[in-house]
Write a structure and sequence with these properties.
By secondary structure, the protein is of the alpha/beta class. The protein contains six helices and eight strands; from the N terminus they run H-E-H-H-E-H-E-E-E-E-E-H-H-E. A hairpin with a 4-residue loop joins strand 5 and strand 6.
């Protein structure tokens, strides 16, 4: 694995640059289904160069790796994203989980960039979710750059460790992901992009 793997430089400014970042993420690190051994060993434990060198992310939990890579690309272009760390639970549906997204300010406008398992979202405005169905356990905003963190050497698990509570049971999460990997629709591997809340698959949830 090349230690000197470089983060790509893109053309464009403003919203067009953000669209290019999402497109780069979709092409450079597509979603794949992982075997159990790789899931338990690798998930959340790769740096940006490692993620880019491997060339994929885990389909059922792509947000940590994709957000970290996108943050590094944005930093390369002089943009300082705010990381959103959201611990949440859908009662009776899944184990408590940690989701990660970004708020990005460019040209006086704020955008949410969110790499979910069912779709990616680039929507103008702040991070949003549905409080009617998601019980929030923790919601934090922070900047890795303000924390003097090297985006090229930190892993998602190290990043989570800075803000996580004790609500997340990783063994339950691994079991949940393993069950998903045994029975899934091929649509989970597709990359859908929503540019408006009302066109998001999460809108009706």
């Amino acid at each position: 694995m090349p230690d000197d793997l470089e983060v790509p430089t893109l053309c464009g400014t403003g919203a067009n640059l953000l669209l290019s970042v999402v497109d780069l993420i979709h092409q450079s690190v597509p979603k794949t289904v992982w075997e159990t051994e790789r899931l338990r060993k690798v998930f959340g434990n790769r740096t940006v160069p490692m993620i880019l060198a491997d060339g994929d992310v885990m389909a059922f939990g792509p947000c940590p790796d994709r957000t970290l890579v996108a943050s590094a690309v944005l930093q390369r272009h002089g943009i300082r994203p705010t990381i959103i760390y959201h611990e949440r639970r859908v009662p009776g549906f899944t184990p408590s989980t940690a989701h990660i997204a970004m708020e990005i300010s460019v040209d006086g406008r704020t955008w949410m960039m969110d790499f979910g398992s069912r779709e990616s979202r680039l929507v103008e405005g702040e991070y949003y979710f549905n409080p009617e169905i998601e019980e929030t356990l923790a919601l934090e905003r922070f900047s890795l750059l303000d924390m003097d963190v090297d985006l090229m050497s930190v892993t998602p698990n190290q990043m989570f460790g800075m803000v996580a509570t004790e609500n997340i049971d990783m063994e339950h999460k691994y079991d949940y992901y393993e069950k998903q990997s045994r029975r899934y629709s091929g649509q989970i591997l597709e990359d859908r992009l929503a540019l408006d809340k009302t066109h998001s698959v999460y809108y009706e949830l």
